[in-house]
Amino acid sequence: MSMIRDLRAVVRPSRPAATRKDNGTYDTTRDPATPSAVVDCAVYRDGVRVRTDQPVGPQEAMRLVRRDGGFVWIGLHEPTGAEFAGIAAEFGLHPLAVEDAVQAHQRPKLERYDDSLFTVFKTVHYVDHDKLTANSEVVETGEVMCFTGRDFFITVRHGGQGSLRALRHRLQDDPELLAKGPSAVLHAIADHVVDGYIAVVDALQDDIDEVETEVFSPGRKGTPRGTDAGRIYQLKREILEFKRAVAPLLRPMQLLSERPMRLVDPDIQKYFRDVADHLARVQEQVVGFDELLNSILQANLAQASVAQNEDMRKITSWAAIIAVPTMVCGVYGMNFQYMPELHWRYGYPVIMSVTVAICLGIHRMLKRNGWL
Predict the structure, then answer these.
(1) Are 204 and 242 in contact (CB under 8 A)?
(2) Which distant-in-sequence residues (6+ apart) come within 8 Å of 339 by Cβ?
(3) CA dist 125 → 2, 122, 208, 238, 300 (Å)
(4) Would the N or C end of the chain have less CB density within 10 A of its end CB?
(5) Burial, 293: exposed, middle or buried (Cβ in 10 Å; 0-12, 13-18, 19+)?
(6) What pTM does this model have?
(7) Any residues with CB less than 8 A from the CB of 224 and at least 6 apart, and which?
(8) What is the pLDDT of residues 20-35, one digit of tens each?
C-alpha cells in the first residue's frame, strides 16, 4: 500500500493542504474577490433545522452535533483543494473521494468507505433554443458529489446548474422525512436529479420529433426535402452526453435500493426503488432516442443519395435530347460538296423539323418514364 501511495504522489499533482490554526479551526481562505465555497451549513435535530444567532461553520456545526445529536448538512460549490481539505479532515473523509470531489469530471458512481458513502451524480439541464442548428447546445451537465455519514451529509456541486437550495427548503418543510437522517437527504438528491432527467427527456422528444418531421415531410413536387445532417449529428452527440450521465447511475441506484447498508435507513431504502425504476425508464428512452436518431440520419443520407440520382437522371435526359441536334449539326457541318438535301430548296426547314420532332419524341418518352 505504501508503494501505491508513493506512486500516486508522483503522478498526481499536489494540492495545497489546509493548515490548522491555534484555535483548532482550519484556514480555508481563498481570494477575497471570490465568494466562499460554503453555500449553506446547518445542523438538523429531529428533522428541524437548529436556529443559531449567527451562521455556523463546519467545525462549529459538528461540535453541536457531537454535543446534542442530530446531523450536519454542508453544501459547497466548486471548493478549492485548500477549502475542502479542512472539512475533509474534520469529518474523516477518504483522500481518494476528496480528490474526486475537488477535481470533478467523474462518472456517476457509488463508493463505500469505512464510515461514509461517496456518491456522484451527473445533473443534466435542457438548454432552451429557438431553433435547433448544427452548433446548438441542447443539454448542459454538472455534477453533485455527496458524502453520507452517520451524522453528516456533505454536497459538493460543480457547474452552474443543479442548485440544491429549493430542495433543502422542501426537505425542511417535511421534518418527519428529514428526521430519518443523512440517508433521507441522499434519497432526496437522487430523486431530484432523476426528475431532472425526466424533464430533459420530454424536451428532447420535441427536438427529435421536429427533426423527424423535417426529414420525412414532402418538399417541392412531392419529393422528400430532408434536413441538414449536421443538426442530426449534433443532436446525437447531445444524446450521447446525456446517456453518459444516466447509464452509469443504474448500478448505484440498484445497490442503494436492494443491498442493506448501515448508513442508509431501511425505511428510506424502499424509496430508492422508485428512483431506480424512474432511472431505468429514462435509460430505455435515451437508448431509444439514440437508435431513432441513427435511423433518421441513415434516412436523411439515403434521401440525399436519391436526390443526387434524380439530378443525374435529369442531366442525362437533357444530354440525350441535345445529342440529336448536335449530331445533325455535326453531319451537315462537314465540308463535302455532294450531300443529300444540301442544294435542295426545302432542305433546311425539313432537317430542322425532323430534328425538333425527334427531340420532342425523346422528351416525351423520358418524361413518361419519370426521368424528367
Answers:
(1) yes
(2) 332
(3) 42, 10, 17, 11, 28
(4) N
(5) buried
(6) 0.73
(7) 215, 216, 217, 218, 303, 306, 307
(8) 333 333 333 334 444 5
The Cα 163–Cα 346 span in angstroms is 92
User: Of the candidates 154, 157, 192, which has an alpha carbon nearest to the alpha carbon of residue 171?
Assistant: 192
Q: What letter represents residue 269's amino acid?
A: Q
Bridge partners (DSSP) of residue 20 are: 26
Q: Which contacts (CB < 8 Å, 24+ apart) does range 118-121 have?
A: 118/93, 118/94, 118/145, 118/146, 118/147, 118/148, 119/145, 119/146, 119/148, 119/186, 119/190, 119/252, 120/144, 120/145, 120/146, 121/145, 121/146, 121/189, 121/190, 121/193, 121/249
The count of residues in the chain is 372
Q: How many CB atoms lie within 10 A of CB 338?
A: 6
Q: Are 161 and 140 in contact (CB under 8 A)?
A: yes
pLDDT at 349 over 70: yes
Cell numbers at 111, concatenated: 463508493
* Cell numbers representing residue 190 in the block: 437522487
Phi (first) and psi of residue 25, to 5 degrees: -85, 175
